[in-house]
Amino acid sequence: MSRWLTPLVLVSRLGLAALFLFAAGAKLFTFRDFKANLANLVEEPFVWPAAAAVVAAEIVAGLLLVWPRAARLGSLLAAALLAGFAAYALYYVYVLRGEPLECGCFGRLIASQLGVSTALRNLALLIPCALVFFGLPRLRRRAAEAATPVASPASPA
């Protein structure tokens, strides 16, 4: 397992970073549509602040994941966003009994419905978040142990 940990953590970290940066970029590219879609989910006075907060949080999460020293913090932010989006999708479907609605996860570039499949996809993405969060300290410990010279027994004189 340890042989696979390094590439798994790297792919998870950079994959999540690409996902969040792409999602933020797609929302910015179709920002008017994103705000219009968000108006179906939040009250009118909160549309602009919510849209700006989502895009900003996705950019911050993506950038933190790219920067190795801050990747664990980025994985926590990414996990919080994914869990929050999943919770809201389920809340919208089961509590509010909302009508089918475009989720807006990737602006208008990639269409998907807000609902259970969106929530499951986001919950599945918690796995790479956990790999980054728990795998990075193990890799750093292993690198530190490899860099520390092992004391050899004193040779008899």
Number of strands: 1
Number of domains: 1
Estimated helix fraction: over 70%
Poorly predicted ranges (pLDDT <50, ≥5 residues)?
none
Question: Which class do the helix and strand fractions yield?
Answer: mainly alpha
Number of helices: 6
Assess the beta-strand content as a share of residues: under 5%
Shape: elongated
**Cα-based radius of gyration, to the nearest Å:** 20 Å
Could you spell the SSE succession in H and E letters? Answer: HHHHEHH
Query: How widely separated are the two ends?
Result: 43 Å
The average pLDDT score comes to 86
Please give the largest β-sheet: none
In words, what does this structure look like?
- The chain is mainly α and 157 residues long.
- It has one domain (2-140).
- The chain is 71% helix and 3% strand.
- Helix 1 packs across helix 6 (126-147).
